[in-house]
Amino acid sequence: MRNKTLVIGLGNPILGDDAAGIWVAREILCREEPLPNVDVVEACAGGLDLLDLMEGYGSVIIADAIQTAETKTGAIYELALDDLGAINYSWNQRNLNLRSTIDLGRRIGYAVPEHITIYGIGIVGAYTFSETLSKEVGEAVHFLAELIIERIPESGVERLNSVDSRGFAKQTQPVGCWR
Fold it and tell me: Using one digit for the tens of pLDDT, what is the confidence trace for 150-162?
């Protein structure tokens, strides 16, 4: 699997704009042609659960919602692991931030990908119960899905055109595309 890319769409599907990453994954899965050597999954996970998803891939692209004092709704942010704050190990594995999770995975021997790209879609109000996205976030979802598709060949991972790479994604049927 070291020659494969995994796209993970993170979020909570019942918290409105917090589901932005999940909708990005669904947009990518709704393509007519599957992306060669790319698996796409939706995840409502954090901490060590993410390590199990990532293990063995050559590169991982993560799409998620992001909310800070400076984020603008619908803005797209490209982040590095170093942008995610200090490494901080928690007694509760679900409270590990992504940077700490990756560091811990490497320390305990997980086959953590060398290349990890993180995209965040700016949101406000991550705790609003809803199964729909705001207009601004929905437009950003579509744009980010296209951006990820365009950038996958730049990940430095060789793509094998003869392989149907949707193996993991076959288990995750898209509910529908955001339009």
Answer: 988 544 433 322 2
Q: Which residues contact 104 (CB under 8 A, 6 or more apart)?
A: 48, 51, 89, 96
Beta-carbon contacts of residue 39 (< 8 Å; ≥ 6 apart): 4, 5, 6, 7, 57, 165, 166, 167, 168, 169
Please provide the size of the chain in residues: 179
Q: Are 168 and 41 in contact (CB under 8 A)?
A: yes
> Which residues have a Cβ under 8 Å from the Cβ of 154 and sit 6 or more positions away?
none
CA distance 146 to 150: 6
Q: Is the pTM of this model over 0.85?
A: no
- The domains located in the chain, with CATH, are 5-171 (3.40.50.1450)
Residue-wise pLDDT tens digits, 59-74: 999 999 998 888 899 9
- For residue 88, give both structure tokens: 């901080």
